[in-house]
Every structure is written in C-alpha cells, then in structure tokens.
Amino acid sequence: MLSVLAVTFPFFALVLCGYLATRAGLLPLAAIPGLNTFVLFFALPCMLFRFGARTPIAELLDPVAAGVYLACGLLLVAASIALTRRRLGWNDAAFGALATAFPNTGFMGVPLLVSLLGPAAAGPVILTMLLDMVVTTAVCVGLSRLDGGSEPGAAADGGRARAARAAFGRALRGMASNPMPWSIALGALASGLHVALPAPLDRTVGLLADAAAPVALFAIGAVLARAGMSAHPHEALRPRDGLGAALAKLVAHPLLVWGAGHGAIAAGLPLAAPAHTALVLAAALPAASNVSLLAERFGAHTGRIARTILLSTALAFLSFSAAVALLA
C-alpha cells in the first residue's frame, strides 16, 4: 500500500496545492480560465496525441472494453436519475448523474494510470474518456432538458422532447469543438499509419505534453476552490448533499465495471485482464471537474455538483489507492 501511495500522493498533492493557492488568493480567480485554456488547448491535447500515437490502434478501438465501460456508465446514470429525479428535477438529477459516471480521466486519469500500470493502460483509459465526452455527456445534457424549465413553451411532452433533442445536439457540437477528441483521433491516425512527427515538432509536442499533468492537476484544485468560493446563497446545501453521489462515483462505478468485465470474460469475450484493470481504475477516479462548468452553463445546482466533485476528489486519495492496491 505504501508503494501505491508513493505514486498517487504527488497527484493528489498537486490538486491540494491548486486548491489552497486559490483559497489563499495566491492564484487570482481571473487567472483560472487562462490556466484551463493552456491545459485544454495546448498541453493536454499534446499529451493525448503522444499517447495515442504510441498506442496500437486496436487498443484505442477495443469494442469489448468500450461496451463494458459504456454499459456500466449508462446504467449508473439511469440508477442515479431514478433515485433523485423526483426530489431534484430532471436538470439537477441529470448533472448529478453525470458527476457519478464521468471520472476525471483527462486531467488526472491518463497520467496517473500510465504511471501506475505502464503505457499499456493508455489505450483503455483514453477510450473511456472518449465515451464519456461524446456519449455519456450528451445523454445527460439531453436528459437535463426534460424539465422544460429553461425552454419557453416546453411544458408539454413534445416541447420537452424537442428541448432534449436540441440540448443533445448542442452537447455533440460542443464535443466537436473540444480539442481532446481530435488530438486522440490524430494520434490514432498516426499510430495506424506509423507516421512520426519531424524531430523539432516532436520535441515541442513533448514539452507541452510533459507540462499537462502538473498544470492540469493544479487547475483541478483551483477550479474546485473557485466553485466553493462562488456558490450562490440560494444554493444552500445540506451537510449530506453530494456525499451519496461521491460514494457512487468512487465505489459503485468501479464495482459495476469490475463485475461487468468479469462477466464479459466469463462469457468468452476478448477482454484482456490488463485492460479490465485499467477500466476499473478509471471508473474509481473522482468526478470530472468540467461537470460543474456544464452544470453552470445549463442552470443546474452548481453548489451540489461542486460538493460532489470536491468530496470525491478528497476521498479518492484513500479509495483509489486502495483499489490500486487490490487490483494492480
């Protein structure tokens, strides 16, 4: 366990540094968007391109791994919404469900799991990120519009359905403008065609890729601190709000993927044990910090989502490390 903590501690310590720096005013709130821009549009795409280019394309397009992971994520979304919709409404329930099913694979998971499991983990983890960005997010955004509360004249069933379809389309267009799926696709193309970048360009990509993990982890802490500092008074929370979703993220999600993966292997489907382990540990990561940004954009309860992300990130230091000790 101590050897696992030796690997995981620096990752969570950088998140804590970003959180404390922001709470103490050392990092101005106005600087956080610039930090996120550097990570999202420069460093992280280069890291994903490099991993994609070095990963056999069959690992990036593994249909069994994709099916197992996506089925578990959508099942968790359905269960979360079923348990919370009557109390919270479709909008808050849908984004709460997204927080339980979307792990922080981009900013945290890829570098952390590659450090723990080796380069072979990159393919399955990048695959989970693509599925969450493109499918799970679009489904939850579409479901969030079933309240019809933010669409004039959408009270009728037909209006709610139109609002959901429109939101689903907006979510897909938003994913199309996200550089991360495109960087993964370019990396997969380079892998499939066995194309290498010219040496100066490769070194530039390498410098940006090496900066991705520390800056992204620091940015996670900054975003979590900002969410807590900018919560609105009307978004008052009960002490237990967010805890159930955080536990679902850290416990139920990896257990679902673990069970589904073993079921697929028992059924004779070609799911390699290392890929299964990578999928389970990806599911054991804390909730993705970008869910709070989506929730704010669509008028959901950002305080509750931020609480879920913060709790899952804090608790994951122990729960994720325990999962690694058991599986890796």
Features:
mainly alpha, 328 residues
Q: What number is the mean pLDDT?
A: 86
Low-confidence stretches: 149-155
Q: Work out the helicity level.
A: over 70%
Number of strands: 0
Residues in β-strands, percent: under 5%
Count of alpha and pi helical runs: 13
Structural class: mainly alpha
List SSEs in N-to-C order. Answer: HHHHHHHHHHHHH
Main sheet summary: none
Gyration radius from CA atoms, angstroms? 19 Å
End-to-end span in angstroms? 11 Å
Q: What general outline do the C-alpha atoms trace?
A: globular
Can you characterise this structure?
- This protein has helices at residues 2-23, 32-54, 57-60, 63-101, 105-117, 122-144, 157-176, 179-193, 199-229, 243-266, 273-283, 290-297, 302-327.
- With 328 residues, it is an all-alpha fold.
- Helix 5 (105-117) crosses helix 11 (273-283) and helix 12 runs antiparallel to helix 13.
- It is globular and about 55 Å long.
Question: What topology does this entry show?
Answer:
Layout: H1 2-23, H2 32-54, H3 57-60, H4 63-101, H5 105-117, H6 122-144, H7 157-176, H8 179-193, H9 199-229, H10 243-266, H11 273-283, H12 290-297, H13 302-327
Brief overview:
The protein is 79% helix and 0% strand. The protein has 328 residues and is an all-alpha fold.
